[in-house]
Every structure is written in structure tokens, then in C-alpha cells.
Amino acid sequence: MNQPAAPPRSTLVVTAHAGDFVWRAGGAVALAASRGEKVTIACLTYGERGESAKAWREGRTLDEIKELRRTEAERAAAVLGAEIHFYDAGDYPLLPTGELTDRLVELYRAVQPDVVLTHPAEDPYNGDHPAAHRMAMEARVLAQAIGYPGPGEIIGAPPVFYFEPHQPELSNFRPEVLLDITAVWDTKRKAMECLAAQQHLWAYYTDLAVRRGVQLRRNAGPNLGLAHDTMAEAYMRPFPQIAKELA
Amino acid sequence: MNQPAAPPRSTLVVTAHAGDFVWRAGGAVALAASRGEKVTIACLTYGERGESAKAWREGRTLDEIKELRRTEAERAAAVLGAEIHFYDAGDYPLLPTGELTDRLVELYRAVQPDVVLTHPAEDPYNGDHPAAHRMAMEARVLAQAIGYPGPGEIIGAPPVFYFEPHQPELSNFRPEVLLDITAVWDTKRKAMECLAAQQHLWAYYTDLAVRRGVQLRRNAGPNLGLAHDTMAEAYMRPFPQIAKELA
Amino acid sequence: MNQPAAPPRSTLVVTAHAGDFVWRAGGAVALAASRGEKVTIACLTYGERGESAKAWREGRTLDEIKELRRTEAERAAAVLGAEIHFYDAGDYPLLPTGELTDRLVELYRAVQPDVVLTHPAEDPYNGDHPAAHRMAMEARVLAQAIGYPGPGEIIGAPPVFYFEPHQPELSNFRPEVLLDITAVWDTKRKAMECLAAQQHLWAYYTDLAVRRGVQLRRNAGPNLGLAHDTMAEAYMRPFPQIAKELA
Amino acid sequence: MNQPAAPPRSTLVVTAHAGDFVWRAGGAVALAASRGEKVTIACLTYGERGESAKAWREGRTLDEIKELRRTEAERAAAVLGAEIHFYDAGDYPLLPTGELTDRLVELYRAVQPDVVLTHPAEDPYNGDHPAAHRMAMEARVLAQAIGYPGPGEIIGAPPVFYFEPHQPELSNFRPEVLLDITAVWDTKRKAMECLAAQQHLWAYYTDLAVRRGVQLRRNAGPNLGLAHDTMAEAYMRPFPQIAKELA
Amino acid sequence: MNQPAAPPRSTLVVTAHAGDFVWRAGGAVALAASRGEKVTIACLTYGERGESAKAWREGRTLDEIKELRRTEAERAAAVLGAEIHFYDAGDYPLLPTGELTDRLVELYRAVQPDVVLTHPAEDPYNGDHPAAHRMAMEARVLAQAIGYPGPGEIIGAPPVFYFEPHQPELSNFRPEVLLDITAVWDTKRKAMECLAAQQHLWAYYTDLAVRRGVQLRRNAGPNLGLAHDTMAEAYMRPFPQIAKELA
Amino acid sequence: MNQPAAPPRSTLVVTAHAGDFVWRAGGAVALAASRGEKVTIACLTYGERGESAKAWREGRTLDEIKELRRTEAERAAAVLGAEIHFYDAGDYPLLPTGELTDRLVELYRAVQPDVVLTHPAEDPYNGDHPAAHRMAMEARVLAQAIGYPGPGEIIGAPPVFYFEPHQPELSNFRPEVLLDITAVWDTKRKAMECLAAQQHLWAYYTDLAVRRGVQLRRNAGPNLGLAHDTMAEAYMRPFPQIAKELA
Asked: Helices C20-34 and C200-220 sit at what angle, rounded to 10 degrees?
């Protein structure tokens, strides 16, 4: 078939706070970027109130903290190879509004994602994550409708992956996909190290990647020639997978 | 790397009755065979008591019915391109035994499957399906253990896919994977037509493939160039998927 | 007992979009009307944005589309024998508001329903359906309270039935009631044919009625003398059934 | 239509122990009998070990206890208007066997039930109840198969109702049907009083009937003219209800 | 260790209506108070519309009813030994707002609770209870953040207990903790008797305490020397328990 | 009250394989022993086939492996301060039998446990764990019945705790209790080091204890003065907790 070259695949990540895309999906982002694909991150808030305890204790002002978090997130996104958009919607609590959902619809149509990553539906430890989840899911459906007004073309029905919350067992999170991120692990680690405000999480998410890597190898079987230092990220799939082959 | 050629991929299908592999997984079987892969079907019973009402009403004897079902299933397996093994364990009820599980362990080790297909855990309309499920799942774990006695090499941890039961909504079945079987639909249809004893199911499973195809297209989005006559089969994944890429 | 004649039974259907009552509950509506009962449909939006893709592609304006959908729905309601109220609350997204809930409380009290039909609580493919569900359920409880202000008498606690969503397996829908609609099937089909904007759904919902009819017969047993062309609709019951007899 | 008179409706109750049919389903049994219908109780064990603590403390022998429980159960069944069959399969633990299931298939075919009552699937306080449940459900499916050998005609697919366990909230029991047993309450009470070995339960199950009656009235609404002393029993429905009307 | 005396433990109860803390948690409140601890009750509404049917039928005005309910609740709180705060946010429906949540954050920080009691997440019979639940849970998380503005010190992560709804089986309520309230039963009964507007509930909640007491003894085993009149309240735990010992 | 001294509390641990009590519950065992309480471990199999891969690869015989595992487990039990009983029932698969359950009933009655620890109900990676679970739960109920024959006194209803499986998220395991084992961590570590056959698990279960410790501190709040190196084990509670106080 003599078709024009397809545009590179596009991934959209919708998150509540400035650091979420790094800890929870940095491997998936780096992997896509390393294949020459486009990744766009929608960061609804800076996490200025709920996830910046260290800065508050140091006596920073709200504006300083937002600036700090923004700068860190920009650096991390650059390391991973992604473009980042900030919405400054105010965290703790992040309140779903029609206007914010509308801006997300616009982004969906501009980006035309082939894959969407976002928070799962439950998190008893942080209400902003479910709030971001609801807006990401609603905007995805609205952006498909020719009757929904706004610029840009309507989108298809891109698959959604929920990334892992901080307390998976208490948030009804079940690993349904284990993504091998070994090849980009160094990049993810560098991106994590951009987030100086949450340094205590560097080791935590390194250990998590090791554990998910062990699960990956255990589930993959001994035949795949996987290295002993396989690193992985876990995801859930709310919609059925489209497959050409069962594997 | 200068490696020897890998053996072709191997798929193992464990089912309760002679027709199950055709109605529920015929597309997956044909697809694998069409790629030059090996598919082995373990048929625990002929379905001689529970799924042969027409033959009983015609006054056939038990042996005649078993022979009839076996012949039909052999023809269907040949059409799909698969090898079939019969265990004649007696249906309605199919009783799990240590000896039958042991024979399945032996088969797992002989076949070294890369993929396993079987029934899901629940079916309030037919207790043989959960019974086959339990033995298939238990044998898969036992076959992995170097300490479990018997001939053959231990196996890895092949992914398992549950195929769709006849009454999905009443059996806790949720489509987690939609497999595009358009390319082999004619083959699946020919295999179904080998099962003269259950002719009323031909149209039923054709319609189901159409509906799952519509769901596939709805979930795949408009960009994939899928034909309007996409046909599909639905599967569940009890274990997490191993991914190189989120897609 | 020498009682005055009871008023005819009353059914209230609360739906998100103009077509929902036809596809999902047309049989129940026609059946009640055929017994001389009163059926009232509350149509919260015309489905002008989310369910009118064909009209948008033909270049219609928003007002034309609303008019088109309204006319079609009025015709379908007339065919089924029901009264219909439009609330024009705006779809995609339908936003729950106190004012709209208040108008529903008023309708509940005016209509004094013996039975309520509405959407189930989940639908990942269309957020308007859960939104309509929440308002229908909340208004039902408020309308029971003597302390809630407004015209009309308070209502009892009418049973609620959830009708079937478009993707039942992905919306936690489990058929708990199968309603035999064979006697009014022709009427439902005529009502569906009023909805020219969604012609692709005529065959889909005919096939669904056949499948639910097969399930009905399978669950009913062979003794009931049901025709082979039994047609049915599926419902869930969120509240316990009140029974004089187990059957 | 000039049809021969239908036989009276038939109800089959499958229980683990001698007292279960009284406490949990005595109202449903009495109600059916009061309408001139046939009710058959299959009592798999006498409850001689697990539910006869008082008799053991008094120093009775195993045979004396079985005789005692049998006599009490026969009296209670007579009061309710039902026929009772004892299988003496041994309780605590009641072990499912192929032979016992086979005898139940025979009973299903002899009785040709229109309604089946049995225990729900879970009870962490008494393993005999789930064991009876499994055999009752399996025998019902086997009895439908023309290919399953044995005397009698095959049966249809009678609806099943699970009666309420002693600790409903800890057994995943959710009242899906509330049966009004006010009219036969005195009969149920008399049947309970036949069970002298478990006298402490008389008041308990009277109170439960009052509470379920209150729930019935709350769900039924104020219009039904129900007496303030409405008594009720709660049931679950594992299969969808077949309806001619939503009510 | 030579530490200063710890302040007395503090319990915060967040409820939708004026009577909730009495019926559902009166025992826990009285027990804490009897140990010299501080208990604070946040009463979001008076329950003036949804739970005062008797007063409305007697022709009282809205203001009279609020006054009546407030007085009763104040008396009941005094009997139990607790401090009570009224927010008069309007019931039926109770609408979650940012401002009300904000006032709860302030209360959390003032009270510094060691234990939080509130409604569970579901109640199909009364939407105000889930609304109060959501605000109580969200305010608890916000009050932990140093970045959330407002007076007072941030709080720790106090355990939460959900008290029992009126219809537990229909609200996904499962007794996970049974609290022995025998020692303070007379106090709880006196507090209930302060609520003259809901006199029909006195006996109901007495019976419930008896039943939960029986469950407590059944689960506790015969060795604990518990009186036959043990009274109890049931609770759920949404967060894991912190234990020094398994018991 | 002038009562005789109560006997020390007694804990019973029922496990499938020789190592389970160490990895999953070693902290709870050591903690109880350190308080001067009695702990008894029932080890149904040596894990000779399913959990001794290293030994099989080294060419050991079945008897050698059983001896090896027994010796290791005896040492670990001695380190923890517990008594251990071996049943040698054969693993992979461990088959539930009436005779084995009967021996467990006898043990329950001899030991008179105040607390029971065992495997949770699900584990898709190892069928022996659910098999041990079922026997442990069934024997606990049978041991309570005066009518169940055998030596010893009947037992009460001791609370049960499920310890954590190897893949918690895939086994429906939700941490409901976090036990602080910091004080006995060194002992648990020494016991783990007795299990030379599974050395790869030492670091794994150390890391798990750290993670559960972090969760413990996060849930406990900042006020408890917990050390930064808090170590913990997670448990589920299938039965409601009996509480004197909510905390």
C-alpha cells in the first residue's frame, strides 16, 4: 500500500500534580520518546499545597513554591523528552470544573493521542488524584463527539492506562500491565532527581521499579532472556485491549 | 546475536467439552496456526451428556454420541490447523481428579506453551467449565516446579487468557482483550460448520463475533483503517500483561 | 372491602437523551401502556451533542438538531403510548444541578409513580448516563420527604429498575430481571423506526431483544410454552423486591 | 385455550440440617402450601453434630440425637404442610459426593420443581451450608440434561432463591426479595416451636421477621395498606427474574 | 522516659443530621467520655427536612423544627459527655461545598482528633449520609497538609471508623469492628430518649445493640466471661489498623 | 476479683509449607513469644516439591529435601520461640482430606488458640496456600462443636488473621492490620537466615517489612514517636474485631 507516512504516535498524560508523571509514568514517557514519539503532559496543578511539605516548612511563599515546582517539572519533562502544559487549577482540593474539562477537551483534540495515561479512580489518601481522573476520562469522551464545540478535529477512542498510585493495595489497584522500562531506567532516574522537593521518593520509586521488574520476570517465564535488573512500571487497563495476537 | 532459530510459538487450549475450542477460541486458534505456530487442544470430555441433547433425543447410545462428537471435533481442529487430544474423563459432571491433573501436567511439559487458553472461573449454567478451569490452572503451576515428578522439562509461566462463556454477564466475564479475527473468520466459520450437533449455535457465534468486532472498532478509534466487517473474540487476562510498549 | 377504584398504575422513566427510552425501555413502556397504565418520560436533554453525529456531519445547526431530536422522540413516545417531558438541560456533559433535581422532585410528586426506570450507576462510555442516574435517584428520595418543600403530595418508595446500557459488560450491568416484551415487540420496533438519526441501532437493538429472549427462555425452562421468537429486555433491581410469592 | 388442568406448582427446598428449612424458609414453605401447592424438603443431614449442642451436653448418644432431630423436623414439616426427605449424609463436615448429588438429581426429576430454595454460596461460620449449596446447584443443572442417566423426566430451569444465613452481613447476603409472610406467620411460629432443641432461636427469628417486615413496608411505600405487624423473609436471586410486568 | 503528660485522647464525629451520632455511635462516644477523653461532634444539618416527618405532620415551621432538633441533640450530647457543633448547612439534600469542607478542616485542626467517626460511603436511602462522608474524608486529608491555609496545627492521620447505616445489607456495610458498649449502655439509652422526635427508633437501636452483642460474644468465644446482656456497636475500618499485637 | 492466673495466651499458625511461617508471620510469632506466650505452628508439608527448586537442581532426593527443609524449619521455629508440628501431607498439590482436617481439629483442641494465623483464600500462583486455608478454616469451626468427636475440650471462636501472600495485589490481599514488629525484627531476620534453601527471599522480605513499616507510620500519624526504621507485617481480618475502644 502506497500510503503517506503516518504521523508519529502521540501519548497524552493527565496528572493532578507536578511530580506525578515522573514517579508513576516516567518510564512509559521516556520509552515513547525514545522511539521518536510525541508525549504531552497535562499538569493540572503544581501540587503546591498538598505535595510540597518541605518547602512550606522552609517558609517559602505560595508563589515561590509554585515557581519551584514548575521549574522542577519542566526539567524532568525535558529529561524524559516530553512537552508539558500547566493549568494552575489549584490543588488540595483540586475541584473539577466545566471550564477545566473544556480546556482538556481542547488539548485532546490538539494532541490527537494514541494512548492516554492518568490516575486510577480511587485514592483514599489524596482526593486530587480521583478528581484529575474524572476530568481526564470525561474530556476523552467529550473530545470524541462531533457535536461538542471547539477547535480541532474530534479524536478516536485511545486506550487508557491507569498508572500506579502510592498505596496500590488501598486504592483497588491491580497490576494488569507490567511495562519493561529497563532500557530507559537511567533516564527515569535522572528525571526523578530533578524533583529535589521530594527527594525521599527517589529510593522508594527505584525499589518499586525493581519489585515490578521481578514480577515481570516471574510472569514472563524463564525463557525470555530478561536481565536480572529488569525494571518495570505497573498499569491498569479500564477498557479492553485491542489485539492482533494473544501474547 | 547469532542465535539458533527459536522454535515456533506454542499455544495450549484446555477445554471441558468437544465444541468449546471452536465456539469460544476458534479465531485465536486459527490465527496462531496461520502464523505457522503450533496449537494443541486438550479436550477433557466429549460433552456426551451435557451438550448433545439433539443426539439423545434421536435415540443414540452413549458410545455413538461420543464417537460422533469426537469425529466432529477432529474435523474442526483440522480445519483450524490444530492438534487435538481427548481425555474422555466423563462430563456432567466433570470431576477434577489428581490423575487427570497429572496428565495435564505431562501435556504442559510436552507442549511447552507460550500461551494458554481456558475457561473462566465461574459459570452458573455449566459446572464442567469451572472444573476444567481449575485443573488447567493447577496443572500450569505444577508443571513449573522442578520438584513435581514426571517426564519432560519444566515450563515457564505462560500468560493465560480466559475465553468467553455462553452467558458472560452472569459469569463475571468482562472483555479485557478483543482479538481481531477478521483475517481467519472464514476458517472459524468452516470449523463451526463441522459441529452439526450444535447447528443452532452457528448464527449465534457469528453474531457474537460481529458484536465484539463493533466493540473492537469502537475502542480502537477511527484511525486504524479497520474494515466495517471486523470480527473479534473477547478474552480476560488473570495475570498481568508483559509489555514493551503501552498500546 | 368496598374500596374506590384505584387509579391506574403509573410509571416514570428518567433518561439522559432523547432516544434512551426507546432503545433501552421501549418494551416496558409499551407493555405498561398496553395495560391501560400511565407512563411519563422525563428526557433531560435532546442528546444534541453526544448522540447526533450524523446530523452534525450533515451541517445542521444546534437548534435544528434539537428540534429534530425532539420531534423524533415525541413521535416515538406517541407510538409507545407515553407522555414525554423535555428539560433541555444540555448534554455532553449533562451537569447535575440542584434546580434540575428540584424539577424532578416536582415531577415525581405530580406523577406519583408505582415504578421508576432509569440508567444504571456506571457507564465509562457516556458520562451523561450516570449523571441522569444520580439525579433520578436523589429526586426519588427527596420526593418522599414531607419536609422537602414544593407542590404535590409526597410519594411512596416505588421500586426502581435500571435498564441496560449499550456496553453492559463494561458497565457492571447484570441482568436481574428479563421482561417478556414479545406481545409489544412490533410497537417497540415502530418506535425505534421513528429515530431516523440513529438508524444503525435498529438492527442492533432487535438482535439484543432476541438474545435476551433466548436467555429468558433458557431461564424459564421448557414448560412455559414460550414462542421461539420471544423478545425481552433486561433490567437490574437496586432495591429488594416485595413479593407475595416466590416465582 | 382448552388445556388440561396444570399440576399444582411444586417447590423444592434443599438444606444442610434438620432445622434450616424452618428458620430460614418456613414462611415461604407455609405460603406455598397454603395455596395448595406441593413443597418437598431435602434434608441432607440431621445436624446431629454441629447444631445439637444442648443434646450433647445432656449426654445423649449420636443415634438418640439423630432420632430427636428427625422427629422434630418431621413435626415442623407437617405443621408447614410439606413433605420431607432425609438423606442422613453426616454433618460437620457435610462432604459433597457424587452419589449424594446423584440422589438429588433423582429427586429434582421426581419433584419437577417450579421453584428451588437453598443456602447461599458463602457462610464462614458453617461449612455445611456452602456444601449443601454446591450440591443443590449442581444437581439442578444435571437434572436438566437429557444425557444424564436416571429415572424420570428432565426438568426445566426453575428459579432459585437463596434464603438468609444466620450472619447475613458476613456471608455476602443482600436481601433481593422480601417475601410477605404475615398471613402464615402463626404457622411458621408453630413450626419453630417444634424445634425444642434450638429454643433460643425462636425469639431470634421472630425478631428477624419483624425487621424484614419493616424493610418490606419501607420499600413498598405507604400506599399498600400493609399492617404494622407485617412479617417477612429475605431472599437472593442468583438467576435473572422472568417478568411479565415490572413491579 | 520522663515525658510530659499526654493530652487526653480526642475523638471527632462528623455526621449529617442531628440524631446520627446518638443512634449509630452513642456507645463509642459515651465510652470515650467515660475514660475522661474529649469527644467533639460536628453536626452538619439538623435533619430538619429529611428526618423530622412527625414534626412536619404536626404543622411545625422550618425554624421551629430546627430549634427542636437542636435542643434534643444538645441534650443527648450532654448526656453522652460530648461537645457538639452545628453547621446548619441545610439537609435533603446536603450539598458538599468548598466552604463547608473548609470549616471542617478548621475543626479537625482545632480538635486534633486521635479517632474519627463518620458515615460509610454508600446509602441508597439517604443521599445526605454519603455527602457528609465525602466532606469528612476530604477535610481529614486537607487538614494534614502544611500547605493548606488556615489557623491551627496540621493533624496526623487519625484512624477512621464508619458507623452502621440504617440498612446495612443494602449499603455495603460489613461489621469489621464490634465495640463492647455494655458498660455505657444505660447512658446511650438515656441519650436516645432525648430524641423524642424519633421515638420509634429507641427500641430498634436497642435491639440492634443486643444483636451486635450476640455477634460479639459469638466471635469472642466462650472464655471471655462476657455477660449475656453484652451490648455492642458495629464499625468498618477503611484504613489498616495499627497493631502492637494481634488480638 | 480473686481469679486464678490465666494460662498464657496461645497462638496457632497453620501453613502449607515449611518456610511460610517465617516469611509471612515471623514477626507476629516472635512478638507473641517475646511476651511469654505460647505459639504452635502446624506445617502441613515440607514444601519439598514446590518450594525447593534449588535442592532439586542440585540433584537431591525427595527424602533428602524433606529432611533439609524440616531441619531448617525446626531451627527457625526455635529462633522465633515457637513449637512446630509437621504433617508431611505432600505438597504440589496439597490435597485437602478429611483425615488431615481431623488431625487439625485435634490440634486446635489441644492448643486452645486465642489467635489463629493462616493463608488467605486466594493465590493464583500457588494452589497449596488456598488448600491450607480451607482446612485451617474448616477445622476451626469443627473444633468448636461439642458434637464433633475426638479428644480435648471444644474451643472458642478465636480471631483469625490472614498473613500476606507473595503477590498481594494479585491475590485480593488488602492490608487491614499493620503489626509493628520493630522490637523483634532481629529475631525474624535470624529466623529467615535459617532458611538457606530460599536465600533469595531474605532481602525481599526485609524490604517488604520496611515498606509495611512506612505504611504503618503514614497511617499512624506523626504523633506516635515511631522510629524511622519501623518494621511491620500486614494482615487481613476475615471476622469482625472485638474492641473495648476504637483506636
From this structure: 50
Closest to C131 measured CA to CA, from A241, A141, B65: A141
Name chain D contacts of C220, Cβ cutoff 8 Å: 156-157, 242
Partners of chain A (3+ Cβ pairs below 8 A): B, C, E, F
Strands F83-86 and E241-243: unpaired
Q: β-strands C38-43, C83-86: how paired?
A: parallel
Please provide residue A115's backbone torsions phi and psi, each rounded to the nearest 5 degrees: -145, 140
Chain D touches chain A, with at least 3 Cβ pairs below 8 Å, answer no
- Minimal-distance CA residue of chain B relative to C124: B219
What pLDDT sits at residue C167? 85
Rounded to two decimals, what is the model's pTM?
A: 0.87
Rounded to 5°, angle at Cα D139 from D136 and D143? 140
**With an 8 Å Cβ cutoff, are C173 and B169 in contact?**
yes
When CB atoms are compared, the residue of C101, C137, C148 closest to E49 is: C148
What is this model's ipTM? 0.89
What b/e sequence results for F19-42 when a residue is b if at least 16 CB atoms lie within 10 Å of its CB, and e otherwise?
bbbbbbbbbbbbbbbeeebbbbbb
Phi first, then psi, for residue F53 (nearest 5°) are -55, -40
Could you count the other beta carbons within 10 Å of the beta carbon of residue F153? 10
Q: Are D127 and D96 in contact (CB under 8 A)?
A: no
Residue F215 has its nearest CB partner, among A167, A173, A174, at A167
Q: Assess A168–B contact: CB distance below 8 Å, yes or no.
A: no
Q: Delimit the domains of chain E by residue range.
A: 10-236
Sheet with A38-43, strands from edge to edge, namely A83-86, A38-43, A10-15, A115-118, A160-163, A232-236, A177-180, B241-243
**Does residue D115 sit in helix, strand or coil?**
strand
Per the CB < 8 A criterion, the answer to whether F114 and F160 are in contact is: no
Task: For domain C10-236, give the CATH number.
Answer: 3.40.50.10320
Shortest CB distance from A221 goes to which of B11, B28, B158? B158
- Residue from E148, E155, E172, E242 whose CB has the most chain A CBs within 10 Å, to mutate: E148
Q: Check residue A1 and give its pLDDT.
A: 44
Alpha carbon distance A218, A241 (integer Å): 22
Query: What part of A 51-110 touches E (C-beta under 8 Å)?
Result: 52-53, 56-57, 65, 92-93, 95
Q: Please give the distance of CA D206 from its chain centroid, rounded to a whole number.
A: 17
Stretch E90-111: mean pLDDT: 96
The DSSP code for C184 is: G
Helix and strand numbers (H, E) in chain E are: 7, 8
Q: Which chains touch F (3 or more CB pairs under 8 A)?
A: A, B, D, E
pLDDT tens-digit series, residues F171-207: 888 888 889 999 999 999 999 999 987 888 999 899 8
Which of D215, D196, D47, D23 has its CA nearest to residue D117?
Answer: D23
Written as one string, the DSSP assignment of B44-102 is ----TTTS-HHHHHTT--HHHHHHHHHHHHHHHHHHHT-EEEE-----SSPPP-HHHHH
- Contacts F142 to D, Cβ<8 Å: 50, 92-93
